[in-house]
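hey so i finally got around to running the thing on that chain from the lab meeting. sorry it took forever, my laptop kept dying and i had to restart like 3 times. anyway pasting the input first so we r on the same page abt which one it is
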Amino acid sequence: MSGPDPDRSAGAGAAPERAIAAAVAALSLAALASGISQRAMDPLLPRLAADFGASIATVAGVITAFTIGYAAAQPLFGPVGDRYGKYRVISWSGAACALAAAACALAPDLPSLLGARLLAGATAAAIIPLAMAWIGDVVPYERRQPVLARFLIGQICGVAAGQLVGGLSADYLGRRAPFALAAVLFAACTALLLRMRRGLPAAALATRQLEGGHGLAHVAREYAEVLRLPWARVVLAITCLEGALVFGAFAFFASHLHAALGVSLAAAGVLVMPFALGGLVFALSTRALLGRLGELGLARGGGALMLVAALLTAFVPGVPLAALACFLMGLGFYMLHNTLQTNATQMAPERRGAAVSAFALSYFLGQSLGVSLAGWAVSRVGAAPTIAVAGVGIACVGLEFARRRRRLEPGR
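ok and heres what got predicted. didnt touch it at all, straight out
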């Protein structure tokens, strides 16, 4: 970010607010479909194993394939969105996601399903980062964070709904149902986006002529230009740490509660569900929280809430407190993460698509690293100390981001 000041493209903020709001709602629907497509596989694995006559470990490849496709395609979509227009590329990707989901639903065997899931992950990689970047293009900075939070309602609900849809499909509806639902949702949001395109001003559909041609070498140069910016490096580094610490800890909440409380894994899974509720509460109250706390307060407060949640989970186990801790974890996470997202949309305005894709990739890599390191720590010192130390680290991340962000404010 060149700083928090509104950028040149903020003129697109003069677009009719109803058209922008309708487009954001359609993008949120696409994020909902993406969440369902990604997370419905978790409870569906036993059904897939039975249907295909394979082990759980083998059919778990449907999750890995999606993740690999998502990660591999992520760096490509940012520069493509900058070049051809983020709104246009999102619309193309929505249509491709619908086809990929339909291919998953129709897959006759496990190898076909694995290939379709790889394609599903690759096509879904464009949706959330480019939608965030597009919102950055059309909404002035001072009004952007609540709009981003409203967009994320779809993703939050999609992750939660994915677990529910997967469970229902495993027991009653069959393995094809989640994919069919995702295909319908992707097709619907694509149709909505194409229909709304006519009501958007040219500034909201802008493209950027890239220097130096096309191809992978040019993509690499785009990201190199983002990384040349000091504030971009700060945001990306802090985002990677956030992903590592939050999900390194949260990945072991359920197993720790299972062991500490003596409840079943299914019951422990229910106890962590308030995480999504915390995110939803934040999304619905972002404007009020931002007005009261400001960006710096959201970052500090989010880190503090996650520290409290980690300590409660680690050392004061109990069913009501566990549910409260997971709610606070979700609320605190979205307070901090949404603030980082908002800054990511402004850290390199001339290459906003590439910048937000770099943000998403940094976050993804942080999660992967964090879960691996936390697993190593849990095997040696136990879950409770690992979760507690991660909580302290998260609080420090929130404080450090607020400190660095404060130095960018005028007059400081």
